[in-house]
Amino acid sequence: xxxxxxxxxxxxxxxxxxxxxxxxxxxxxxxxxxxxxxxxxxxxxxxxxxxxxxxxxxxxxxxxxxxxxxxxxxxxxxxxxxxxxxxxxxxxxxxxxxxxxxxxxxxxxxxxxxxxxxxxxxxxxxxxxxxxxxxxxxxxxxxxxxxxxxxxxxxxxxxxxxxxxxxxxxxxxxxxxxxxxxxxxxxxxxxxxxxxxxxxxxxxxxxxxxxxxxxxxxxxxxxxxxxxxxxxxxxxxxxxxxxxxxxxxxxxxxxxxxxxxxxxxxxxxxxxxxxxxxxxxxxxxxxxxxxxxxxxxxxxxxxxxxxxxxxxxxxxxxxxxxxxxxxxxxxxxx
Amino acid sequence: xxxxxxxxxxxxxxxxxxxxxxxxxxxxxxxxxxxxxxxxxxxxxxxxxxxxxxxxxxxxxxxxxxxxxxxxxxxxxxxxxxxxxxxxxxxxxxxxxxxxxxxxxxxxxxxxxxxxxxxxxxxxxxxxxxxxxxxxxxxxxxxxxxxxxxxxxxxxxxxxxxxxxxxxxxxxxxxxxxxxxxxxxxxxxxxxxxxxxxxxxxxxxxxxxxxxxxxxxxxxxxxxxxxxxxxxxxxxxxxxxxxxxxxxxxxxxxxxxxxxxxxxxxxxxxxxxxxxxxxxxxxxxxxxxxxxxxxxxxxxxxxxxxxxxxxxxxxxxxxxxxxxxxxxxxxxxxxxxxxxxxxxxxxxxxxxxxxxxxxxxxxxxxxxxxxxxxxxxxxxxxxxxxxxxxxxxxxxxxxxxxxxxxxxxxxxxxxxxxxxxxxxxxxxxxxxxxxxxxxxxxxxxxxxxxxxxxxxxxxxxxxxxxxxxxxxxxxxxxxxxxxxxxxxxxxxxxxxxxxxxxxxxxxxxxxxxxxxxxxxxxxxxxxxxxxxxxxxxxxxxxxxxxx
Lengths: 334, 547
Fold this sequence. Notes:
heterodimer; A: mainly alpha; 75% helix; 0% strand; globular; B: alpha+beta; six-stranded mixed sheet; 17 helices; 20% strand
């Protein structure tokens, strides 16, 4: 097992290196000069030239790339061109905001998605099955933008029960040393704040959960249907076991593996920062951070932001792979 | 063994489920709460926590870049720093006339080469440092000793730094405890207006020294509010400065600037009461605000221009006749009615009508497709031509929807035989390619910085600015001579006259189709009083109160 983890971690290095290389080339291939963008429309040519010099933007790209790599190995993610702050120092709050939202969304997606999939498979071709799958189809094709604004309108303006945007009641801000508001308020036992924070999570969380939920439901259903037809399930049923246990205990265990893969991938995608969700709900997450950096051609932020997200993505997938053997002991990594 | 692991997993799922359920109960609580509080959960919470404090939440489209005003050029930074820092001279409440600020009075020498400022006494910075002549000198020395990267606006407004040839300010000296003398290398007509711009807010010298490079995260000025905290991309919080030099200001205890990038979401946040004031209301939403008894609309006096630039070096726009034909072909009023909900006025000059230098005698190119056709024929293009029409990818106050305006223009042009293909690029790309002269015709605009005509006509149309803000590559030596003369002319009337002439030249050469001067909109609760939207886009919130 440890050997397997070790080799997977080693594999990470070429993957991440390749990724930095591709990102590096792509962002330099798009037109737009960071020096010009940062100095503003009024800047003189000399000023732009001076800034380009300081940032080393006139060096050949491979020199720039090499400099960047050397920085990476010393733990230096570069300095934001726009805010002149090291990326390492400013990235955490954005990342924490996105992680919190993603975890919340994936919990919703997993609980509802898996159960809807199971029940659909259990009662195949029933009205529940049809309704759930139609909803799932709508879910995967739902424009999040529209859904988000409609939810704001219904739940915040018409019903007045949920806040429209943001992570907290700004008039009574949360003191959060870790950046995870739920965690901090929970630890402190500040349940008033916890409830405010959770309320702020609901709308963006459900908007973000919609697509993964639909995908998970469909995946679970098809995977379950396959397993339900297998011999051991028939045996279990003929043995007189209650259907509930057959489904949730025996069938699910074998059906869950492909679903887990999907969950892992979806979780990774969510962490990449859902730019639309973060924009509509004014969520100060990593997606918007990187997206805005693109507008400003803030190369170090784009490169390092994507690097961090990719790293997490790969780690989640590693974790999911390890989960397989936990759930299905037949899978061994040696 | 397997069973145990499965149980473990089930337990984990149960834990997740309970967390989610807790979320739902929290939700229900909110429902009962808000029944007694008309849908504003925000207000309930803070009433309990902080008593009678008046907290103003100002929703806006983006976050600030830095809170050290001299180091930035973006409006979202100035929106905050305007309230933390004071300038020697202030702009008027809703115009760009100059008024006393940290300086009580000033005197210019006849030749316009020296200015003596008498400073206000008894003013202190938020950190307790005294405000005096030394503090002013320290700030100007800091700026003049920097470079364009550190202090971009200083360089562009005062012609450079230190010993640069173009640098306008020769020296700044403390000639008394509360008297500062500026000596200039050459007269600069908008000198006082420049001094009044937000970037030139006076910072505490002690704090500057202590904070060094991190001053932008710990700004200290003499303004009505002092800095409290900043959550990037989310909120900037500032609170009342008790020793502010104007006795009964500021009226509110705290201001929180909140970034909500999406216009519709910001409007939703306003409607639900989470924010008290919202910037960047799109004209199409004005009706919603006016129809709501709890909300009011604020108009920002117009100091901008939206235009269709015609790249003068590209065929067939190298022919003034074709450019004039374009001017006659486009129906500005229809664009204003359609996409600005009438909240704009048609433009005929590059500078906005509020300026004294505005030439109202210029006869506008009226909407006249017949005349446009004639002009095209005269130019040897009786069958029209094909062109690319660039549409802005981002909304701006002077152009809330570039795509739709472009479509309207496209159909106008089709009427006179011109086939326009609409194209668009991501914003930074758009600007760079337009500046490189790659567009045939492009939508763009400008919002003024200091309320001076030079800031429009010279910046946008002079040959010195080709490659930067003169995107049209328009060149005219006569115009250039007039504009350079106007820059150093200190007599206001003579100067305005120079600009009047300049506008005539621009009108005849028609490098643009000037489209609109729009009125940007804000909205807030009806309980808000004393809010005056400033044409520069940075609003002083000291006089704002909430009832």
